[in-house]
């Protein structure tokens, strides 16, 4: 099935190539390399502190690797600091058994409020999006971009329906429209529409706008967390 999706993506990408210049793609890639490299260098002390804290709180492994679908349907291992407990799957199954409505919540948006799998440090990492910092390595590898659609798993491709070629013709991003538009309050259909909208409006200025909004979203999430304590 994945090969079929790849074929669709290639046909649509070839047809749409005049809409996005080769120069734009090259400049975007250059920006990704410079930004990711500089960020990793600047944030290296913080990355080491997070790794040490994770080692103390829940031991190894420190990095969570999950297979995602990238540009053209190619699979890659998306990197994150591990924010979930080692027995997370068991805890999730127990939650669904006790509260079936939570399983419906998960199936609808692939997110859970008060996820029982997430440990205390993991909640902080997710609140600040620091758990996604290892994805800068994915960016340097060319598997991800700084800005783009949220990387999805294979099972989610079918949920894109006729819009799947938009996702497959782009490189997944560390941040994107979905991440800056109140991600917990959006349906899956809205998330797909964000990817379609980004496809039609992608440009350097759009990426800079999304990056700027990302900073605001992270700071707002931290402020809201403090206000609710």
UniProtKB/TrEMBL annotation:
<keyword id="KW-0270">Exopolysaccharide synthesis</keyword>
<keyword id="KW-0808">Transferase</keyword>
<protein>
    <submittedName>
        <fullName>Sugar transferase</fullName>
    </submittedName>
</protein>
<keyword id="KW-1003">Cell membrane</keyword>
<dbReference type="GO" id="GO:0000271">
    <property type="term" value="P:polysaccharide biosynthetic process"/>
</dbReference>
<dbReference type="GO" id="GO:0016780">
    <property type="term" value="F:phosphotransferase activity, for other substituted phosphate groups"/>
</dbReference>
<keyword id="KW-0472">Membrane</keyword>
<dbReference type="InterPro" id="IPR003362">
    <property type="entry name" value="Bact_transf"/>
</dbReference>
<feature type="domain" description="Bacterial sugar transferase">
    <location>
        <begin position="28"/>
        <end position="219"/>
    </location>
</feature>
<comment type="similarity">
    <text>Belongs to the bacterial sugar transferase family.</text>
</comment>
<dbReference type="Pfam" id="PF02397">
    <property type="entry name" value="Bac_transf"/>
</dbReference>
<feature type="transmembrane region" description="Helical">
    <location>
        <begin position="33"/>
        <end position="57"/>
    </location>
</feature>
<keyword id="KW-1133">Transmembrane helix</keyword>
<dbReference type="GO" id="GO:0005886">
    <property type="term" value="C:plasma membrane"/>
</dbReference>
<keyword id="KW-0812">Transmembrane</keyword>
């Amino acid at each position: 099935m994945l090969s079929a999706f790849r074929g669709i993506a290639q046909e649509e990408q070839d047809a749409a190539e005049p809409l996005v210049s080769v120069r734009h793609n090259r400049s975007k890639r250059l920006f990704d390399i410079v930004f990711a490299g500089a960020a990793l260098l600047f944030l290296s002390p913080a990355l080491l502190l997070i790794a040490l804290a994770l080692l103390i709180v829940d031991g190894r492994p420190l990095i969570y690797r999950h297979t995602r679908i990238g540009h053209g349907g190619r699979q890659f291992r998306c990197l994150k600091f591990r924010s979930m407990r080692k027995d997370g799957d068991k805890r999730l199954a127990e939650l669904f058994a006790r509260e079936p409505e939570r399983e419906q919540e998960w199936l609808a948006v692939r997110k859970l409020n008060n996820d029982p799998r997430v440990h205390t440090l993991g909640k902080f990492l997710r609140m600040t999006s620091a758990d996604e910092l290892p994805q800068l390595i994915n960016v340097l590898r060319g598997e991800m971009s700084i800005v783009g659609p949220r990387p999805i798993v294979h099972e989610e491709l079918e949920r894109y329906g006729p819009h799947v070629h938009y996702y497959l013709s782009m490189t997944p991003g560390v941040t994107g429209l979905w991440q800056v538009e109140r991600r917990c309050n959006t349906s899956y259909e809205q998330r797909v529409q964000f990817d379609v909208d980004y496809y039609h409006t992608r440009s350097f200025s759009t990426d800079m706008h999304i990056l700027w909004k990302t900073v605001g979203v992270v700071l707002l999430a931290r402020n809201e967390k403090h206000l609710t304590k």
